[in-house]
């Protein structure tokens, strides 16, 4: 299963570039921060052969997850996934645009917000999947590692090929790609009580 993570900065052109990536089958699941919004609704990601799930209860979504149609989506709404996973001790992957700096995830220095985030990660038993110091954020005068991929314990053994892509995203944020192997999906089949009479 292939994953992709990107901060779209609410940008229409970057959304079109992401759609191209999805159309080419470069991701089964996309972790999207700051999707393109129009009148408070996520736009530009329709007709991509998948389903979007938004964490926000309002229409002003700050993030969403794209799941290709052949991938079995979760049965609960996305805003319940974190609680669901932790309460059942299931594995969890989080894509985030941290904007905090810490040498442990490849920044050249550490700031107080980075220190606070690191304390949160340790107290929450979340690990960083980022490898190396390849910048996830690049503009003409600076670059840094602020796009983080986080996970619960033991899933890093299933993750391979985590990297910052050289593919053009049309943004200052670069695509983050990785693969997960040996995924099992728990499927529960329920009978329709009306048909069982």
UniProtKB/TrEMBL annotation:
Q: Which domain of life is it from?
A: Eukaryota
Annotated signal peptide: none
GO molecular function list: catalytic activity
Q: Which InterPro entries does the UniProt entry name for this protein?
A: Endo/exonu/phosph_ase_sf, Endo/exonuclease/phosphatase
Q: Which residues form the Endonuclease/exonuclease/phosphatase domain?
A: 64-177
Q: Which Pfam families match?
A: Exo_endo_phos_2
Q: What is this protein called?
A: Endonuclease/exonuclease/phosphatase domain-containing protein
Q: Which organism is it from?
A: Cryptotermes secundus
